[in-house]
Model the fold of this input.
Amino acid sequence: MNIFKREFKANLKALVIWCLAYAGMMGIASVEFSVYNDQADEVNQFLESLPEALQQAFGMDGLRLDIPEGYYGYLAGFIILASCIYATLLGAQILSREINKRTAETTFTLPVTRQHMVSWKLAVAVLNCFILTAVTFAGTLAAFSPYEMSADFIKGVGVYMLIILLLEMFFLGMGLLISMLLKRHKRTGSIAASITVGVYFLSFIAKINENTEFLKYFTPFEFFPAPEVVNGRELETFGFIIAPLATATFFFAAYRLVRFKDL
Done:
């Protein structure tokens, strides 16, 4: 339990900053939505005037930005990207931070196994993801509270928060595995975050035309499109298979590699 407390304290400042940033983002979103809400006709005409490929790339085809369901479908892409970058960094820093601060020799020579140590650190990372997602959910409801929110919208946002948590676990595991594979530990965080952003932009390419649509199977950001989730539409099943399977693989491989990692 001491490991858990020490790790939570070490991550607390960053968690508070991320939570404040999310609260600020939702505050700005509330102001922006009020503009769209007041100028519905002009905004929808502008959206319809955009090239179809651009609408599809940004997931705005068929969206109405003057209603909470439509605006959140547009906003959700930025929320899930930021959340997954946060989870990636948490996973990447579990090992690299100890090495960079030259505390690994002390920490990993305690009378516990390396897997035990990593498990406590992962428990803190998972808790932090839960907290950030809860703040995001509360911030979303607060941002749209001045406007008319249907029960279906609140339910859709709640389901989308669960999707975000699922993908956070995916990228948490990916970040941890990357830290096990790389030897340049000072660059682990930036490399892992760059891969996450690259995977996100892959989802843009997948939506450009039919020839690139197959790429959606290689980016988890396309597994659960926000407009479909928030509006309660049926999702394709492959995401519910690939995401948990890949996440389990990441964690399994990381736990195997940590036994032999040169610290």
User: Anything to note?
Assistant: DSSP finds ten helices and no strands in the chain. Residues 2-38 form the longest helix (37 residues). The radius of gyration is 20 Å. The chain has a mean pLDDT of 85.
